[in-house]
Specification:
Layout lengths: L10 E4 L4 H12 L4 E5 L7 E8 L2 E8 L2 H8 L3 E4 L3 H13 L4 E4 L6 H14 L2 E3 L5 E4 L9 E4 L8 E8 L2 H10 L5 E6 L10 H9 L6 E7 L4 H12 L4 E6 L23 H10 L3 E3 L2 H14 L3
Helix pairs in contact: 3-4, 5-9, 6-7
């Protein structure tokens, strides 16, 4: 079973030549990700060198003028997007139309109407989008000779391979729970993103983990705003055979005030952390009030099921 992306998948980086693109392309290369080029129409034809980026050796990547050119020459199947918000819609649409099958959109601050457009287009074209406004996707190597795949900004050195899956609406809380459970390990960690409209929902991530033989239990991190956690809980109660443990951020958040993410806002008395906690616990999903407590609950669940 492939978790979201196959090991060794050829990847391009849209916006690679910007500061964030350069920084995180170097990180992804060092993690073993098979990055085969960048895309920036204004810098097409340039070569960018990344010193000691792969197994201690320098890596030089070509900058293509378009995604279609990059796909034709490199066979790229995935893209990571570090393009500024006002250009992000065009960048994602370009990647979809070029035949890219997995697009990880790191960019924060994309207008909701733009996200709605490219998420709908991706659904019609059979393309998986992760994000926007997310830390990305990390898969851990399944064999000794595998590299895994790091697409985005998730730190790769804090966890190793293990039986847990993780899906989160929060970036930094993703890293914290990874650290709290680093001794157990993960098959994959997916940052779904905190915007009102995202390409891969909590429920869709649970579906992938449910169908993966190596994943034995799942950590789900939610936050105030929207109903994604309730939707995921309802699906899990009807279809999930593996245990899910959750953490909901924002128990003390005031109503009407946006907290961090564009979608993290309690409106009309709905979307509170307490509401979500009650909905999840009603279908048997245990919820921690802190990341540390959530990790301890997961340890109890694994011990009780001899995982």
């Amino acid at each position: 079973m492939t978790l979201f992306v196959e090991d060794g998948t050829p990847v391009i980086v849209q916006g690679m030549t910007g500061h964030q693109g350069m920084t995180h392309t170097a990180r992804m290369l060092k993690a073993g990700t098979n990055i085969v080029g960048g895309v920036n129409a204004r810098k097409a034809g340039q070569e960018v060198n990344f010193p000691e980026a792969k197994n201690g050796e320098d890596v030089t990547l070509h900058v293509f003028g378009s995604c279609s050119e990059a796909v034709e020459i490199t066979g790229a199947q995935a893209s990571v997007v570090f393009v500024p918000p006002r250009f992000a819609k065009d960048a994602v649409v370009e990647a979809i139309e070029a035949g890219i099958k997995l697009i990880v959109v790191i960019t924060e601050g994309i207008p909701v109407a733009d996200s709605a457009y490219f998420v709908e287009l991706a659904l019609r074209k059979g393309v998986r989008i992760v994000g926007p406004n997310c830390p990305g996707l990390l898969t851990l190597p399944s064999t000794e000779n595998a590299q895994g795949c790091n697409l985005g900004i998730i730190p790769d050195g804090i966890v190793s391979r293990g039986p847990l899956g993780l899906v989160s609406k929060s970036g930094t809380l993703t890293y914290q729970l990874m650290g709290e459970l680093s001794d157990i390990g993960f098959t994959a960690c997916l940052g779904a993103g905190g915007d009102p409209i995202v390409g891969t929902t909590l429920q869709e991530a649970l579906e992938v983990f449910e169908n993966d033989d190596a994943t034995k239990a799942v950590v789900m991190i939610g936050e105030i705003g929207g109903s994604a956690e309730q939707d995921a809980a309802k699906w899990a109660s009807e279809h999930m055979t593996k245990p899910v443990v959750a953490y909901i951020a924002g128990f003390t958040a005031p109503e009407g005030k946006q907290m961090g993410h564009a979608g993290a806002i309690v409106s009309g008395g709905k979307g509170t952390a307490q509401d979500k906690k009650e909905a999840l616990e009603a279908v048997g999903i245990r919820v921690g009030r802190t990341p540390g407590q959530t990790a301890e609950i997961m340890r109890e669940v694994l011990a009780s099921k001899s995982i």
